[in-house]
Records
---
Amino acid sequence: QVQLVESGGGLVQAGGSLRLSCAASGSIFRINAMGWYRQAPEKQRELVAIITSGGSTNYADSVKGRFTISRDNAKNTVYLQMNSLKPEDTAVYYCYAHIAKREYDPMFNYWGQGTQVTVSS
């Protein structure tokens, strides 16, 4: 089985920072893209940031210049450094990873359980 375990969420004041981590473990042969989505109450889940195995990144316009995604391939871990947080960043943040469990297996998206980020004004 594959597990993605997130950590680092919490409550912070506007203008503050948080760092999210997500570690993938279990039966993993290869991980391609990893990333973060978020879902605010009564809103659809939206992409926050994505990083490829080669390190290319893409961000939602709403977080560009404030959030930085990175990964440690040796640890199968993806990070999201969030600076200058705003109340509108409040959401449950989910990590995902595009994983093949064995060499010739198809790749699937696996998801973490979500971590709450709350930004107070």
Note: The radius of gyration is 14 Å.
---
Amino acid sequence: QVQLVESGGGLVQAGGSLRLSCAASGSISSINTMGWYRQAPGKQRELVATISSGGSTDYADSVKGRFAISRDNAKNTVTLQMNSLKPEDTAVYYCKAYIVALGTMRLYWGQGTQVTVSS
């Protein structure tokens, strides 16, 4: 059974920082692209940032220069460092990963972690 578990969400004032982490566990052979998505109330889930197994990154325009995604392949973790947070960053943040387990690659999602930025 493969699981993604996020941590690190919370309440922060505008201009502050938060660090989200996501750990994959289970019978994992390899992990391809990992990423973070977010969903604000009444809005669709949107891409925040992704990172390939080789370390190539991609960011939504709205977070470029403020957020940084990284991963530790040995620990099966992905981290999102969020700086200069804005109220519009308020959302539930989800970890996503393409994981090969027991010979099959599947898409997995974490349960989500709330990030609230107050003005």
Note: The chain has no helices and eleven strands.
